[in-house]
């Protein structure tokens, strides 16, 4: 409205939370955080500029929208106008109801769908969709419906608030089951759809028929019958849980079954077929064996879960089977055996329940009879030798006929076993001879021993015992003859025995003594032994020492120290055998006393070892595999284990100085060899050469990513050897110790703080030790450069942000209040920024950082220059500007806000070059 032109004009519209920004139709507008800003730049006097903003209403209620305008000529914001908007809502409810809840296959079902608008606004462009289940076939639908591929869509149009619309669809059910049908409604005013569902249950119907065939109607007991059962489903639905009941009557035995489908349980007679599809047939072949002679009847039935339209064909009875009696059979094997063997007569039979038998002897008498079961043998017979006849007769049931047969049994005489058991005896004992025959053997035996004969000695319970006294020493033969009886043949036998002299026991009694004592040797024999003995002690023999009352005593003195062997020889007499025995005794020396003195030392010190013995001579001392002999007359020996050297000095006791022993635990052994007056003695002790304690020091360095960490570990002894192991970041590194030092290089460490744990293994001189250290690996701080050449209005700004070539990650820039992010490639991120207005823009660049480089930001700028024009600018102070908000009806829920700014007057414009 003037009076001057307005420059640097900006329009600002802060949106209420009820509005959702959709678009602005002016290219020079910027939307950020709910605020829309238009940069109009210039409006001449009496000139009008307008902008357009499109928003979506997201809340219900009455809301206002206010716009503000300002220019370079005004110090304060000019208040604009506002427009109120009232927004309603659309709420659609869907109800779907079927005219039935349970139907049969093939029935037609109608679904009624009602859509009710309970919102405060009208619903437009309403569509109702029903996706039919595959079990349904489309039949018909209400007006405005379109059905394609089992999907029905109604174009309902508009539904005024508070009103409803009803549509319907009819379908035919193709299969049985419970099915869900869902209807969905959507309008232009709603972001989401509304849906409702209903369920119906479809019950199937079937017609099952069954028939049964039998393979034969006139048979004999033991024959097999084959039954064939056929079941057919005549539909129209599939039959489920189909079961066939096979009632087998008569005494039959199950043999085999073959089912084309399902399983047959012979214990219940149920054939579980399962599901039988429409027009499907199944077969069961059942084989049984006939066990009795009664007439066999058989019936069969079928059922399923579904209703059967023709129950009359669910049962079937096959033809009756007539069964005839079967013959029986029996025989026994001829048996030939020897008396005393177990009699087993194998008997074979068929179709019998038992067998009656008789045993007839050669005189025609029945000696045994009885009954056995089928499959049993005739046993338990006790028959004398002879020829027998066996008569057999079958025992049968009402279904079989009786059979008879005979066989032979021959029992031969047996050769009896005869055991002759004499006894080897000693002169003066009685000889006992035992003769053993079978327990049932009868009669007598004749016995000859040397020149003596014993005739007709009776047998009692199969045994003969005879005692013969006063036999002189020597070897004898026993001859025995048995004459036999009705069951046993005659037999001869012989055996030998010996009468020997009496053995003579000798007992030798000796005693261990000390040097200077008297040894008494005592030899003891039986009291009735006579004659002499010879005794040898060491290398001296004492001959023909007389025996008095079974004893000999021999005293011996002046024996030197040592062990003596004693040998005794007895020549025997007329009643006793000769014999020898031996023994020994010891003349012991005196045992001396020995002591040893040792002490623990540090490695490098001298071990002084002292040994004392209360006897003359020398002592052997062993340490660390080295043995030395030291005189007990104050002898001293010094030994360097690295360079042996011996110095002898007899001035009091045995001393051993040991130099340069390595670290370790050392047993020390001292042995005194003894002499003719003293025994050998020994003693031992243990001393320790201890390793020196050690310590280590760790030197580390703080580094940057990409550098190697150098670590040095120093032992506090320069002559230390062994190994040092360090642990850094979970990894172990080992290095040998050289001149007391170990060095390590650890590469490839990421940024962070690290602990170092070092362990020294120790060696043969120094104990292990450990220590800890730490160091830090820091990221590098990269250089960042922002390069943005000047552009003119309308050109795209090209901004290049550079970092080191090996840097990775993302770079984000902020320019003109907007943020842009791009990945780094070869150390650069390039941004192309369109639509920049005239002016100078600050560029803030942020680098995210990576494993090697820290994050960092940089600053740059870009100049956007005016296009050059030959126009003149006239400036009028304090123009008056009015801002108006125009509202256009655009429908619910989209509101288009038209902002109009009218400026009055036009003037010629001239742009001056800088």
Explain the overall architecture.
With 914 residues, this protein is mainly β. It folds into eight domains: 6-74 and 878-904, no CATH class; 92-203, Immunoglobulin-like (Sandwich); 205-324, ntegrin, alpha v. Chain A, domain 3 (Immunoglobulin-like), CATH 2.60.40.1510; 326-412, Immunoglobulin-like, CATH 2.60.40.1930; 419-500, Immunoglobulin-like; 594-678, no CATH class; 696-778, Immunoglobulins (Immunoglobulin-like, Sandwich), CATH 2.60.40.10; 785-865, Immunoglobulins (Immunoglobulin-like, Sandwich). It has a six-stranded mixed β-sheet, with no helix packed on it. Strand 59 (618-623) and strand 60 (626-631) form a beta hairpin. The chain is flat. The protein starts with 5 loop residues before the first strand and ends in a 10-residue tail after the last strand. Residues 643-652 and 870-914 have low confidence and may be disordered.
Descriptive labels:
single chain, 914 residues, mainly beta, Immunoglobulin-like, 8 domains, six-stranded mixed sheet, five-stranded antiparallel sheet, 82 strands, flat, disordered C terminus
What CATH calls the topology of the largest domain is Immunoglobulin-like
Main sheet overview = 6 strands, mixed
CATH fourth-tier homologous superfamily of the largest domain: ntegrin, alpha v. Chain A, domain 3
Rg over CA atoms, rounded to whole Å, is: 65 Å
Distance between the termini: 30 Å
CATH 2nd-level architecture of the largest domain:
Sandwich
Share of helix, binned: under 10%
Strand order of the largest sheet: 9-17-16-11-14-13
